[in-house]
Amino acid sequence: MNIAALVSGGVDSSVMLHLLKEQGHEPVIFYILIGMKDKEGFLDCPSEEDIEITTWLAKKYGLRMEVVTLQEEYWDSVVAYTIDAVKKGLTPNPDVMCNRMIKFGSFNEKYGRDFDLITTGHYASTLEKEGVKYLATAKDKFKDQTDFLAQITYDQLKKLDFPIGNLHKAEVREIANRVNLPSAGRKDSQGICFLGKVNYNDFIRRYVGEKDGRIVELETGKILGTHKGYWFHTIGQRKGLGLSQGPWFVVKKDTDENIVYVSNGYDPLTQYRDTIKLSGFNFISGNPWSDLSQPANITFKIRHTPEFNKGKLLFVDGKAVIESEVPVSGVAAGQFGVIYDQASEICYGSGEIDWQ
User: Fold this and answer.
1) pLDDT at res. 356
2) Lower Cβ count inside 10 Å, N or C end of the chain?
3) The pTM is what?
4) Choices 3.40.630.30, 1.10.287.3510, 2.30.30.280, 1.10.10.10: CATH for 210-266
5) What tens digit of pLDDT does each residue of 67-111 get?
């Protein structure tokens, strides 16, 4: 079997590679360059250490390694999507789009066509039922990353495998230590790769700019302060508002008037919703329900957390709607609502939250 192993140099993909070798496979290692500098050198995703570790792994296991670049594709799709979403007042999720459009999109089109499988170090798994392959959650529910994979297509899923999906993070670390992998003690990567060492707000400021606006208390209409643009703030945000007598939560944004609305208290009711509309819903492996007009019992996530929420999914006028069993906080337009079965085992797909 021809396997393309996407290796980043981190502990998860390093152990993934070790497991493939233990199983008798001879994968080809691919390190994907996606971080890039623009014409003024603003963006830079450091990759030297990652490539050094990946090269060490290739030599240790006697495998062929290729460093491939998808920098232009990343800029044209993921970075452009992020900038466009922010301008619209949405909360983007570049990691979701990177998986669909770059790692399992552009990579497969340019380099992966001759391979039977593409493997990664994601905490996820797959299973088959009645001849249909499904994206399934990882054994380690705290590290599960299916919410970042919930926009992939079925054709992409058919070629994917996640060798560490049946392990807890502690087990992955233990394996890395036992076989003396250089990434054994590396911290998990945080943030968005294309930013490199650049602060997210600095990136937004560079490409969207600044515009003074008002911070207003939702309940009273009282002006509490000013901000530099609604695009710097997201629903559910608590820090970085510069307001006294808090805590204050961002609960609403008026993009036409450039107003950020906030509510006071540790748990204001205004930051909760029990009905969540989703647009552009993507069923990964097809629709599992015969009648979309009838509510289906589900679990779901609206952000990357270990917890699954209980609720129902129905379709109204062609649009997916989540009815949550209990109100959830921080529902931000632009993020993805990810739908699972009742057991939180199968990830059916996701749609973009359509509310502001």
Assistant:
1) 45
2) N
3) 0.90
4) 2.30.30.280
5) 999 989 998 999 899 999 999 999 999 889 999 999 999 999 999
* DSSP annotation string for 283-348: ESS----S-TTS-EEEEEESSS-S--EEEEEEEETTEEEEEEEEEEE---TTSEEEEE-TTS-EEE
What whole-number distance in Å separates Cα of residue 14 and Cα of residue 12?
5
Reading phi first (left if > 0) and then psi (alpha if -120 to 50, else beta), residue 214 is in beta
Nearest to 254 by CA among 227, 230, 220: 230
| Topology at the third CATH level for domain 3-121+163-195 | Rossmann fold (3.40.50)
Active site residues: 98, 193
If 0-12 CB within 10 Å is exposed, 13-18 middle and 19+ buried, where does residue 73 land? middle
> What is the residue extent of each domain of the chain?
3-121+163-195, 210-266, 271-353
CA distance 345 to 57: 32
The first and second tokens of residue 224, run together, are 């509490």
Q: What is the architecture of the domain spanning 271-353?
A: Beta Barrel (2.40)
